[in-house]
Design a protein that fits this description.
This protein is of the alpha/beta class. The chain is built from 16 helices and 14 strands.
């Protein structure tokens, strides 16, 4: 529909794969608001290009029915400083040209912090979706991004009560904090039934077979050869019992080659069925699109990961989750979900998988406000708080 000139202009920032699942519900909620709401909103979708691989970006836009970005910064890879600096420089140019009423950032990647800093220095209000999450491990780049983004944001949208409590402890005024639920769950509910209809399991020869699904990408796990080798030792032991499907992040694949760890893997160039005697190798694939990955996660016997978002999604899906970290910024997945932390200990990895295979799995209780309506709450709050100039 045509947006009036008096519309409030919102810039929504996407940067990396986890962001897309958080931005898509917001774009849908803005569209729904414009169909029936007043004042109107003019969304401007900015993709910083922090994930530049087609399988890590374009496929997710397609699966999530996200429109083409209005602006693509094309930042690409680099060190944390290089990437953050380039985003600030290029995003500031966009802000000066577009003069938005508000900037909405999501998650905890470098672009999230960089865009928030660029906006606040120009006195443009910032809304942070997924605020208040803390692992209390400042060796994680994401933890620094979370802390800084929350400190400068004007609207802090939290997924669970622990986020509110943490922000209050850090001195954030209560009026800035809004408990709205988990926006990742909005995308999960929107895509789950479509995902289940996809022939993903047939293509991989997994229909009716137990299997483990693995994702690893965090520097603490894949940048140190000894740590990475320990983890792969545990996963290889799991692969002796059930197939291990490992959609491999480009950065993780690079580390596998650098450390000479290829013997642990079978690298599949195409999605072909596994042979019945697939052996104890880890089956590495290019990253799947959102819907195929959701299908794999929903049918997995167990998921092993170092991703924060997957801890949440497995909680909602009631799929056993083994997190290869010793901290989590999502403690509700431990208290109400299926999640358990095993650090990088191969023996604990094997023990926890064995518990699942023996039927001693944890059951999930989906948090009350993880109901698929988080984006609607966010848009309602922002549209009634006078973001129009």
């Amino acid at each position: 529909m045509m947006i009036e000139r008096s519309a409030s202009k919102w810039i929504l920032v996407a940067a990396a794969r986890p962001n897309f699942m958080k931005i898509a519900p917001l774009m849908r909620a803005v569209a729904a608001h414009n169909e029936k709401g007043d004042p109107p909103i003019r969304p401007v979708l900015v993709h910083t290009g922090q994930h530049y691989d087609a399988n890590m970006s374009d496929a997710f836009f397609r699966d999530l029915n996200l429109p083409e970005p209005d602006i693509h910064l094309g930042i690409g890879s680099g060190t944390h400083g290089e990437q953050t600096g380039r985003v600030i420089i290029e995003f500031e140019k966009i802000l000066l040209r577009e003069t938005p009423d508000i900037v909405i950032v999501v998650g905890d990647v470098n672009s999230t912090m960089a865009c928030a800093l660029a906006a606040v220095k120009l006195h443009i209000p910032v809304a942070h979706v997924e605020a208040g999450l803390r692992s209390f491990d400042r060796t994680m780049p994401e933890e620094i991004n979370r802390i800084v983004t929350d400190a400068v944001s004007d609207y802090l949208f939290t997924p669970s009560p622990d986020g509110d409590e943490q922000l209050l402890r850090e001195g954030i005024p209560r009026e800035k904090i809004h408990l709205v639920g988990d926006i990742m769950v909005d995308s999960l509910f929107a895509g789950l039934e479509i995902a289940k209809e996809r022939p993903t399991l047939d293509r991989l020869g997994l229909d009716g077979r137990p299997y483990a699904l693995v994702t690893l990408h965090r520097p603490a796990n894949v940048d140190d050869k000894n740590t990475f080798t320990r983890i792969l030792g545990g996963l290889t032991a799991v692969a002796e019992k059930i197939p291990v499907i490992f959609p491999i992040h480009p950065r993780t694949r690079k580390q596998v080659v650098l450390f000479g760890l290829e013997p642990h893997f079978v690298f599949h160039k195409e999605e072909r069925p596994l042979s019945p005697d697939a052996g104890s190798m880890l089956h590495a694939y290019q990253p799947f699109g959102y819907l195929d990955f959701l299908n794999l996660m929903a049918h997995a016997t167990v998921v092993l990961t170092d991703s924060g978002g997957i801890q949440e999604e497995t909680t909602v899906l009631d799929i056993p989750c083994i997190t290869i970290r010793d901290t989590t910024e999502r403690p509700i997945t431990l208290t109400e979900g299926t999640n358990v932390l095993v650090h990088d200990d191969p023996d604990r990895i094997i023990t926890e998988v064995d518990r699942v295979l023996d039927g001693h799995r944890r059951k999930s209780k989906c948090p009350a406000i993880w109901d698929g309506h988080t984006a609607e709450r966010i848009v309602r709050i922002l549209s009634t708080h006078g973001t129009a100039r």
